[in-house]
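Ligand: flavin-adenine dinucleotide. Inputs:
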Amino acid sequence: MLQNVLLKRAIYASEEHKMMQQMIQDFIKNDMLEQMDEWEEKGMVSREVWERAGALGLLCIDMPEKYGGSGLDFSFSALFVEELNREGVTGPGFSLHSDIVAPYLLKYGTESQKQKYLPLMASGKMITSIGMTEPNCGSDLKAIKTNAVDKGDHYVVNGQKTFITNGYMCDMAIVAVKTNVGTPKEGVSLLLMESEMEGFEKGIPFKKIGLKAQDTCELFFDNVKVPKENLLGEEGIGFKIMMTELARERLAVALAAIGGAQGAIEKTIAYTTTRTAFNQPIAGFQNTQFKLAECATQLQLHQSFLDGCTALVATHQLTAESASMAKYSATEMHGKVVDECLQLFGGYGYMWDYPIARMYADNRVARIYAGTNEIMKVLIARGLFKELFEQMRAEEKK
Ligand SMILES: Cc1cc2nc3c(=O)[nH]c(=O)nc-3n(C[C@H](O)[C@H](O)[C@H](O)COP(=O)(O)OP(=O)(O)OC[C@H]3O[C@@H](n4cnc5c(N)ncnc54)[C@H](O)[C@@H]3O)c2cc1C
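Predicted complex:
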């Protein structure tokens, strides 16, 4: 058993964590596993599963109770992310909604924005997304073209976003726009855009090679009137907000990776113990044992590092560099683990009915979204050569 060789994780050791883990496992078993095929056919999950998650207190877990959250610390959110991915339940974009959109609102929202959106989000009655990427720019976010023109008490927004998780189901999206274009105040700002606003259109969900039950689509804005009170934070500081908050988003992706790797190894241990060849279990071959020993070791190393990162979120000390290391390294590890595991399933590993096949397909995007792994290395290197880059910038200004 994998648990026999892994260190006990202090961050999940409390009775509350154990109860939460049991509740999550029951939720997955009773409300999600049987729906997976139907959701994959439709390219999206049901609204009911969002409301069920809300009723169980599993949305906006670390938001304050006065805004409808569960008032717990981030380790409980981390546990939820890991458990979902451990079972390969990647359809509902809960983490993006609870761990990315909600903290933006809590940290930068006005009191009335928090009161308007957070309780609905925590109940699962409102589904949210975040729109940064555009058809012509993903990594280079400063190059976005979606434009918000100031019209006094409102903005008029024109533009397009792509690859938006929860895009088709969303009721509200945080959208990155350019404001004050062509003036010295030109910059990126964030707007809370409700899908009911006139001129806000959604594309049909993309057909993807994995995450088939998670809706990902384009958003189009044609002269959408957005009241000024829907500005999140101040005008022009959107890029700074995104760069700060992306650390937590990247940690969430890394947590999904270690949860996924754990599930893949567990399922492979079970399969290779019962499947036989040459009159012995597949697990009897030294190759199988060595491969799984290597996978378990890699998982252990990443769990230990990520537990440290998770603890730092509570005290707002997780740095962009650590989050980038976690995201890049854990998703690469997950990719290798799930590939090795699939191999040990033989031909069955290639069949969609076997969760390992879905895990293999689902994992691939983790090296691309939330900032590609190449961009993660750019960010780490920026920290390594900080003084040099500062000197170079100062010389450019002379
Ligand atoms: C399933 C899915 C869900 C997504 N969900 C969302 C979402 O909810 N919201 C959202 O805003 N976006 C979302 N995205 C978009 C995602 O974040 C982007 O795809 C990603 O940031 C990469 O941008 P790009 O696709 O434009 O690639 P590009 O930026 O065009 O990059 C192409 C290649 O060039 C490399 N590259 C680019 N710049 C550099 C550099 N400086 N140095 C070295 N290499 C470089 C990249 O690493 C990559 O390999 C999602 C994407 C997918 C596939």
